[in-house]
Amino acid sequence: ATYDRNVDYNIFISNDAVPTTAEMTINFRFGQDPANPLASGIRITGLPGNGPIVIPCETPFTTPNGINVMAGLFDDPFNFDPQGLKDTRSTGRLSIRSDRNLFTGKNSTGVVFEFPRALIVNGNNKIATYGTTARFPGTQP
Asked: Are 97 and 84 a contacting pair, CB within 8 Å?
């Protein structure tokens, strides 16, 4: 996997009545794994109830208050049957099958957070999330 150290990632979580204001901001950035100079790591700040954490990529991690985090390669979650699409277009009958998947065995790079509900709820307010990415000036992919 390739992890770009020149991109700053933010996830904003709102748990008040105004979904466009963030009560929590989680920031992360990739870099070198401090325990293994040949591997990638991730530095995360803003996790509820935790200080900054630095963990290796491709390794599941659980914070003391139960937040699960993993950065790494994941099996692509999308399913696409190009032959089924071609058959559907030529015959007019839906011919897409779930056992033919162009994306089987393909990987996507991702960061996954799983929170105990109690860490992010605020009464009966809905939870809203949004994210941003920004490349540092003067850097290229």
From this structure: yes
How far is CA 11 from its chain centroid? 9
Beta bridge partners of 28: 9, 44
Closest by Cα among 11, 59, 51 to 33: 59
CB atoms within 10 A of CB 67: 21
CB-based contact 73:109 (threshold 8 Å): yes
pLDDT digits 0-9 by tens, 102-129: 888 778 889 999 999 999 998 888 999 9
Per the prediction, the chain carries an average pLDDT of 91
Q: Decide: 67 and 50 in contact? Cβ < 8 Å.
A: yes
Which is nearest to 1 in space by CA: 42, 48, 57, 43?
57
